[in-house]
């Protein structure tokens, strides 16, 4: 466990709550508003966050364009372009974005991230993803989504070539998927090389992370899930000659925080009320793997469901919750769409800090990737209420000690 927790600010257009775009304190074009992002990055930097993180997918986020256009991330910048602009508007905070190993080539991607690392003075990070969505696949040829194992095999070689190029060790790579003749036209950056981030959850995804990642994001609801993931991943590292502390594991957390618990609950309920029924029902349908849920009365119970061929565990979870709490379709849709499967804490700064501290000190996290419900309000609330509470408890830095992302994270400079 690290001495102090690491914090990431996961930036996402109007916010992480699916209905954030309808909130009166957001604006729908936030995803393409550079001033909005500059303000968020500066807030996170003033609060001494380790990094900001921008996710990505080269395609719409929902298969149905009508539904996609009614969620909080329907328009947004390509993230590496965005972070290049933010690099010159900030001076300390780490700049991390996703890029796909399925729809890029390693030489170009290595060059782009190492350039970002240079122009930010050593603050860049790459979240390696293999891209699991068939929606993206359809934008890169007609052959559809490649099998999971093939995507990870390509990702393994991709990561090897990229890190080799960053460390000046590749020339003449000829492998299964890639062939690269020359080194990059860039020297190592002030932090040596960009930070490698991953969020794979599968067995092969965890193995790749154990071998190559510096930071790992995860989605875990309970302490037990988070702890099991943490122990499993750290346990895989010795096989690759690495120490447990060489990877920082940062589960996502979606807090809604206010001065009083009642106020926090009110804020959360206000967001829940904003979820359009058709969006809630569409997302619930996908969890249940049925297409005609919209035919049933929204204030009535779930219909009898055929056995799922999709996400069996997710279907069972929804059915169980509807039985246990007597929830109708509308209530279930709001419950699952609003949280989107992430760990949510609604409460005061003390309550949020207590929960983060328990996971951090209980060996289930090295830090957290904070996913504010809407921007800028909930990032401001976390920065002004929760961060000072964590600092008061000695759990988070008061000042940056270094200038690079590796220095913030306490990571060794790559050799
Ligand atoms: C916090 C977090 C952020 C993620 N960001 C992205 C992203 O930006 N783009 C993407 O395609 N997948 C993203 N993912 C999905 C993971 O990369 C991965 O595909 C998923 O966890 C399933 O694991 P597997 O690929 O090993 O099966 C993210 C996951 C988490 C937990």
Brief sketch in words of this structure:
41% of the residues lie in helices and 13% in strands. The protein is α/β, with parallel strands linked by helices and 415 residues long. It folds into 2 domains: 6-259 and 348-409, Luciferase-like domain (TIM Barrel), CATH 3.20.20.30; 262-339, no CATH class.
CATH superfamily of the largest domain: Luciferase-like domain
Cα-atom radius of gyration:
21 Å
Helix share, percent: 40-55%
Heteromolecules bound: flavin mononucleotide
Number-wise, the strands total 11
Spatial strand sequence of the major β-sheet: 1-2-3-4-7-8-9-11
Shape: globular
Overall average pLDDT: 93
CATH topology of the largest domain: TIM Barrel
- Which spans have pLDDT < 50 for at least 5 consecutive residues? none
| Secondary-structure element pattern, one letter each | EHEHHEHEHHEEEHEHEHHHHEHEHH
The first-to-last residue Cα distance is 23 Å
Structural class: alpha/beta
> What oligomeric state is this?
single chain
How many domains make up the 3D coordinates? 2
């Amino acid at each position: 466990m690290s001495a102090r927790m690491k914090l990431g600010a996961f930036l996402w257009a109007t916010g992480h709550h699916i209905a954030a775009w309808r909130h009166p304190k957001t604006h729908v074009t936030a995803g393409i508003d550079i001033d909005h992002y500059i303000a968020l990055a500066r807030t996170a930097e003033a609060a001494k966050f380790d990094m900001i993180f921008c996710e990505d997918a080269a395609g719409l986020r929902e298969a149905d364009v009508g539904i996609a256009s009614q969620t909080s991330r329907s328009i947004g910048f390509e993230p590496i372009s965005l972070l290049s602009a933010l690099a010159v508007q900030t001076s300390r905070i780490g700049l991390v974005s996703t890029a796909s190993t399925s729809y890029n080539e390693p030489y170009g991607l290595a060059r782009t991230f190492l350039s970002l690392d240079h122009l930010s003075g050593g603050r860049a990070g790459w979240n390696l993803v293999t891209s699991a969505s068939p929606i993206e696949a359809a934008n890169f040829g007609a052959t559809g989504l490649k099998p999971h194992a093939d995507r990870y095999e390509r990702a393994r070689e991709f990561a090897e070539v990229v890190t080799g190029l960053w460390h000046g060790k590749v020339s003449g790579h000829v492998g299964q998927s890639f062939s690269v003749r020359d080194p990059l036209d860039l020297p190592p950056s002030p932090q040596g090389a960009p930070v490698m981030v991953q969020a794979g959850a599968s067995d092969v995804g965890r193995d790749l992370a154990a071998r190559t990642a510096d930071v790992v994001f995860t989605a875990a609801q309970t302490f037990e899930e988070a702890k099991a993931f943490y122990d499993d991943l750290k346990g895989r590292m010795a096989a690759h000659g690495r120490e447990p502390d060489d990877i920082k594991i940062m589960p996502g957390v979606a807090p809604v925080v206010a001065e009083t618990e009642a106020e926090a609950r009110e804020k959360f309920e206000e967001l829940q009320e904003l979820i359009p029924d058709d969006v809630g029902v569409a997302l619930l349908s996908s969890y249940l793997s049925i297409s005609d849920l919209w035919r049933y009365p929204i204030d009535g119970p779930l219909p009898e469901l055929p056995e799922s061929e999709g996400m069996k565990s997710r279907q069972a979870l929804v059915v169980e919750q509807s039985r246990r709490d007597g929830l109708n379709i509308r209530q279930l849709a709001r419950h699952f769409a609003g949280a989107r499967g992430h760990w949510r804490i609604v409460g005061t700064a003390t309550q949020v800090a207590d929960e983060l501290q328990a996971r951090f000190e209980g060996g289930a996290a090295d830090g957290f990737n904070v996913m504010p419900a809407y921007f800028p309000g909930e990032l401001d609330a976390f920065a002004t209420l929760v961060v000072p509470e964590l600092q008061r408890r000695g759990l988070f830095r008061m000042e940056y000690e270094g200038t690079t992302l590796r220095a913030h994270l306490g990571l060794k400079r790559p050799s």
